[in-house]
Amino acid sequence: MSDCRGQRWSLKDMTALVTGGTKGIGYAVVKELAAFGAIVHTCSRNEAELNQRVQEWKSMGLKVSGSVCDLKVRAQREKLMETVSSLFDGKLNILVNNAGMSIPKEATEFTMEDFSTIMTTNFESAYHLSQLAHPLLKASGNGNIVFISSVAGVIALPMCSIYASSKGAMNELTKNLACEWAKDKIRVNSVAPWIIRTPLVDNLEV
Predict the structure, then answer these.
(1) What is the 3-state secondary structure (H, E, C) of the chain?
(2) Could you write out the three-class secondary structure of 60-84?
(3) Which residue, 25, 124, 169, 193, is the most exposed by fewest CB within 10 angstroms?
(4) Spatial CA neighbour of 192 closest among 180, 201, 205
(5) How many beta carbons lie within 10 A of that of residue 139, not counting itself?
(6) Burial (CB count within 10 angstroms: exposed 0-12, middle 13-18, buried 19+), residue 63
(7) What's the CATH number of domain 2-205, 3.40.50.1820, 3.40.50.1000, 3.40.50.2300, 3.40.50.720?
(8) Domain ranges in the chain?
(9) Cα–Cα distance between 162 and 166 in angstroms, integer?
């Protein structure tokens, strides 16, 4: 696989921030980017899990570091981006807004707290991190934002009206930022997977 990567293309010395990178899709993204040569920083609320993953990646010879961060908290998002700016000398090539969560309920059963938690984690944090990352992405001269959306943001699915709304908003944000920030040489895309069971962790994501 390493030979195949070298023959196809390389991310050598490019910098990346992947949110929620200790499990599921985020874990796979961190590992893949680093395997292509990128220098990756990730974050998680779970310090023990984060430390374990970082050591695992380093044992593979991958350049990965991590920060403990609760993305629901604005001040912690700002601190995360300050850390990234310091690590990468004020430049960032890739931002992967991956962190997300869902609470399966009927629409009539959702509470105000449910709404706030899901929308803040899935949409507000991704929007804010993109704003914070903009000067770093622009400074790199080759910036990329990838939103990990969901098919739920495109079609109707049961028991996930707020989650679907957060992902639908993310899809529209992608279009707007792609147009608005093209002048700054920042590409913006979203990926909308169906239900995924990753091979490395027993985790379902939609």
Answers:
(1) CHHHHHHHCCCCCCEEEEECCCCHHHHHHHHHHHHCCCEEEEEECCHHHHHHHHHHHHHCCCCEEEEECCCCCHHHHHHHHHHHHHHCCCCCCEEEECCCCCCCCCHHHCCHHHHHHHHHHHHHHHHHHHHHHHHHHHHHCCEEEEEECCHHHCCCCCCCHHHHHHHHHHHHHHHHHHHHCHHHCEEEEEECCCCEECCCCCCEEC
(2) CCCCEEEEECCCCCHHHHHHHHHHH
(3) 193
(4) 205
(5) 15
(6) middle
(7) 3.40.50.720
(8) 2-205
(9) 6
Look at residue 7 in the predicted model and tell me its pLDDT: 57
* Average pLDDT along the chain, 206 residues, taken 10 residues at a time: 60 96 95 97 97 97 98 98 98 97 95 97 98 98 97 92 97 98 98 72 46
Catalytically active residues are 163
User: 5-26, pLDDT tens digit by residue?
Assistant: 555 689 999 999 999 999 999 9
Q: Say which residue the tokens 């993204």 belong to.
A: 29
The answer to whether 126 and 97 have CB atoms below 8 angstroms apart is yes
